[in-house]
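Internal ticket - ligand job 218, BIS(adenosine)-5'-pentaphosphate:
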Amino acid sequence: MSKLIVLMGAPGAGKGTQARLLQERLGLPQISTGDMLRALKQEQTPLAEEVRPVMTAGGLVPDDVMIRIVRERTGREDSRDGYILDGFPRTPAQAAMLEEMAAEQGKRIQPILVDVPPEILERRTVGRRSCPVCGEIYNIYFRPPKVENVCDLHPEAQLKHRADDNPETVRARLATYAEQTRPLLDYYQASNRLRRVDGTRDPEAIYADIEKIVTSDE
Ligand code: AP5
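stdout (structure tokens):
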């Protein structure tokens, strides 16, 4: 049975960083609901109008919208042999939908928490920069590019700072996570599925632990 990897963790925990490594090294597609919503937000559609203020305020986009987006994306051919969810589920309704979808797709859910204490998260998010060409993730405090504000792999590209990575929105996102998403950890723990990795170490050390979980037969 192929695995459906769910990377969990607070804003800035390193889900995207780890999902990109898994995609690169194991060939499983990274399905980031945050990235999909940021692309959708650029469109001139009623849905984009609905999503924009929610993200700016650090809240959650409604479950029915998210469920529709995830169902469509995970139904594509590249997801047949497994995939990585980065940023989904975030509410009990999303978790319930995922159980149904995993059963339909014949996949086993493997939730993995990238565990990072709150005091580190603000610098991780506020200091984040990413390449608009390849999506490589940097951090001005923890993982600066070789040349300030320029991607190491794309010297022509100026790094981008996410609109919701300002201190005020980050605080709101952390509060939203604590209220609405953290309780899902108990849900997965109760069925003995949740695995935790210490997310305060070097990304490669974290990756090594995650890869072991993902490739084990358990
Ligand atoms: P989303 O894009 O999912 O944001 P998030 O969950 O807040 O997570 P982040 O992307 O901020 O952090 P990350 O854990 O991926 O960390 P990263 O690897 O980049 O969602 C954005 C918004 O979309 C939400 O607020 C919501 O409005 C909406 N949304 C999304 N999904 C939704 C859903 N399912 N339902 C409803 N609404 C939804 O790393 C962070 C920084 O730390 C980087 O600078 C990186 O270089 C650095 N770093 C990473 N690992 C390490 C390490 N080990 N050591 C040192 N630095 C590190």
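Auto-summary: The first strand starts at residue 2 and ends at 8. The pocket of BIS(adenosine)-5'-pentaphosphate is lined by residues 9, 11-17, 33-34, 37, 54-55, 58-61, 66, 87-88, 90, 94, 124-125, 127-128, 137-139, 142-143, 164, 173, 203, 206 (CB under 6 Å).
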